[in-house]
Amino acid sequence: MGTTPHPTAIRFVEDDHLLEITFSDDVTHEYRTEILRGYCPCAHCQGHGSMPHDWNELRREPEVLISDISQVGNYAICIAWEDGHNTGVYSFEILRQIAEEPSEVLGDYPPEQMDDVDW
Ligand SMILES: [Zn+2]
Questions:
Q1: How far is ligand 1, taken at its centre, from the CA of residue 32, in Å?
Q2: The pTM is what?
Q3: Is the preceding omega at residue 5 within 30 degrees of 0, hence cis?
Q4: How do the pLDDT tens digits run along the chain, 119 residues long?
Q5: How many A from CA of 79 to the centre of ligand 1?
Q6: How far is the CA of 62 from the centre of ligand 1 (A)?
Q7: Residues whose Cβ atom is located within 5 A of ion ligand 1
Q8: What values do phi and psi take at 101, rounded to 5?
Q9: What is the C-alpha separation between 23 and 82, in angstroms, rounded?
């Protein structure tokens, strides 16, 4: 869809809570899973889905461990988390924005809680 680069490789480094995504333009970004989950874009987490996305406080480690990733159409991936939450659909476009211009798409970035997340 359009010219947004799509992922060509995705790797979850569980011990470090990192998701590494390589895109079709050979750019690789690393994402802390705390950020991906804390700003989960689903309607349940974001209400009406206005931008920027709101931070939702993290409470337990399974919330930031990925159990499955599936592709949605040709524009997004869906991340399922170990606590059972599986409604977050991350478009390729927002994934690039989270890495490249986070304060444009993530409210109150970086979130205060990030300083003391220590499972
Ligand atoms: Zn959600």
A1: 16
A2: 0.94
A3: no
A4: 568 999 999 999 999 999 999 999 999 999 999 999 999 999 999 987 678 999 999 999 999 999 999 999 999 999 999 999 999 999 999 999 999 999 999 999 999 988 767 67
A5: 10
A6: 14
A7: 40, 42, 45, 88
A8: -145, 60
A9: 25
